[in-house]
Design goal:
The chain has helices spanning 9-21, 64-73, 77-81, 87-110, 117-139, 149-165, 171-197, 203-217, 222-233, 274-285, 290-300, 309-314, 330-339, 396-424, 435-438; strands spanning 53-56, 61-63, 242-243, 247-256, 258-262, 265-269, 316-318, 355-359, 365-370, 374-384, 387-388, 428-429. Helix 1 (9-21) packs antiparallel against helix 5, helix 1 packs parallel to helix 7 and helix 5 (117-139) crosses helix 6 (149-165). The protein is globular. The strands form four sheets. The chain has a five-stranded antiparallel β-sheet, with helices on both faces. Strands 2-1-12 form a three-stranded antiparallel β-sheet. A two-stranded antiparallel sheet has the order 3-11. The protein is of the alpha+beta class.
């Protein structure tokens, strides 16, 4: 049987790094350790099997493997693909960012930053989860006649090894480098958090920051508010200081329809969840309150967003302007739940769905609606009234503004710290030796 490979070599080489690269890539942090209480020495094994050193430093060798991960996950990668940045300039940006990563990593190690046992255990869980995800994708390429799961896993690893061999790596080396790369970012992220916590701020500083932001936010659009709100929910921004219009947030229980493939296209079986619907709806009718509803979400829900603490706590923001930002019908159902009666604007084109209402034992209403991928049971989470955001000193919103202000102040100090680290921990740059792998003329010749 001819197997069509669905996972590319470079995709595999970067997948394990993407999770932790997203933690703080805008400030180019890095870190590495092999044990929870001990950072690794510079390893000669990093220099073999087609994995040369790109940047050498006191505490770590930044290898070609590390560089590839950074290259394909840098925030400016799409700019380069669309021609806004030349490949040569983009390569130089990645080298500069990699140098910053190595600098802050050196500073972290020299200042004794290590993962404690809980942090290391969390890393192990993340790493193993990502590895299994990669192996699961390779299982899709294993001959269908192999049905035993253990055998399919063995065959999947063989296929992974074939792709790794194309880059001069074997499975053991790949695991070693992937772990080193992820831990590198864990260490530097922890050090950066420590630097931010060392920024001293008074209550007056945070109030002044709030008022400054408020003055510039009163003309914020609902779309910009949604972006800022979602950044906060995902843990990457401060809570907006001003609500531009009345809006609210919702949580939901999602039952995904079964998928099927036919004539090369994918569809959804809209009758696939009837028994689960009946079971869940009976449970909803007997749920005491919002907390009981969310307990049912834990049991039945299939939306990964509801597994995220930020969205679970704050919900999905809803406003009439957001009709085009969710599956058609989702906002319609939520708005009818909140206002009792609501119709979309004339420029929103979709078939108005059927909706059904349920009531919890405390009188809280829930609305049911079917969209393309599944059935949603929606409940109101929070209400947001137009105007300056209400807060109490020390609450979650207040703390998010404190962190944002500390981040701003640390950003202002970062370049000075970087120059100090470069003097304390000199780097040797070998990137010219790999430039031709990443930078080519339009005709494919090396620059």
């Amino acid at each position: 049987m001819v197997i069509k490979r669905t996972v590319s070599t470079f995709t595999i080489l970067v997948m394990l790094a993407v999770l932790l690269l997203s933690i703080g890539c805008s400030l180019d942090k890095s870190g590495d350790t092999a044990q929870p209480t001990q950072a690794p020495a510079v390893s000669e094994s990093n220099k073999v099997k087609g994995n040369p050193v790109v940047i050498s430093s006191k505490n770590i060798d930044y290898t070609l493997y590390d560089f590839r991960n950074a290259y394909y996950s840098n925030q400016y990668y799409m700019y380069m693909l669309y021609g806004a940045i030349t490949p040569s300039d983009y390569f130089d940006i990645v080298v500069m960012d990699a140098s910053s990563v190595v600098c802050i990593y050196n500073a972290a190690i020299e200042n004794g930053v290590q993962l404690d046992s809980d942090e290391y255990a969390a890393f192990e869980e993340d790493f193993n989860s990502q590895l299994e995800n990669i192996i699961s994708q390779y299982k899709n390429d294993v001959d269908e006649s192999i049905t035993d799961d253990d055998l399919r896993r063995e065959e999947a690893i063989k296929l992974l090894n074939e792709d790794l061999a194309a880059d001069g790596l074997d499975y053991e080396t790949f695991i070693e480098l992937a772990r080193k790369n992820l831990l590198m970012y864990k260490i530097t992220d922890k050090y950066y958090e420590q630097l931010r916590e060392e920024i001293e701020l008074s209550e007056d500083d945070i109030i002044a920051y709030f008022n400054e932001q408020l003055e510039s936010s009163e003309d914020i659009s609902m779309i910009s508010f949604k972006d800022a709100y979602e950044a906060y929910a995902m843990g990457s921004g401060a809570f907006p200081v001003y609500i531009p219009d009345d809006c609210f947030s919702v949580n939901h229980i999602l039952l995904l329809f079964d998928q099927f493939s036919e004539d090369g296209s994918t569809g959804y079986d809209t009758h696939s969840r009837n028994e689960t619907e009946a079971e869940l709806e009976s449970a909803i009718a007997n749920a005491a309150d919002f907390e009981a509803f969310m307990a049912l979400e834990n049991e039945y829900g299939e939306d990964p967003g509801m597994d995220d603490e930020g969205y679970r706590e704050n919900g999905y923001i809803i406003h009439g302007d957001y009709d085009n930002y969710y599956y058609p019908g989702f906002v319609y159902a939520a708005m009818n739940l909140y206002y009792g009666s609501w119709s979309p604007s004339d420029d929103v084109i979709y078939e108005i769905p059927d909706i059904e209402f349920f009531e919890l034992l405390d009188g809280t209403k829930v609305v049911k609606v079917a969209t393309e991928p599944g059935i949603h049971y929606i409940i109101v989470n929070k209400e947001f009234k137009k105007g300056a955001v209400e807060y109490e000193i020390g609450d979650a919103r207040w703390l998010s503004w404190r962190d944002e202000l500390a981040e701003t102040k640390l950003d202002a100090q970062y370049e000075k710290l970087l120059e100090q680290w470069k003097l304390l921990y000199p780097l040797t740059d070998y990137s010219d030796a790999i430039r031709s792998e990443f930078v080519q003329d339009d005709d494919g010749s090396e620059k």
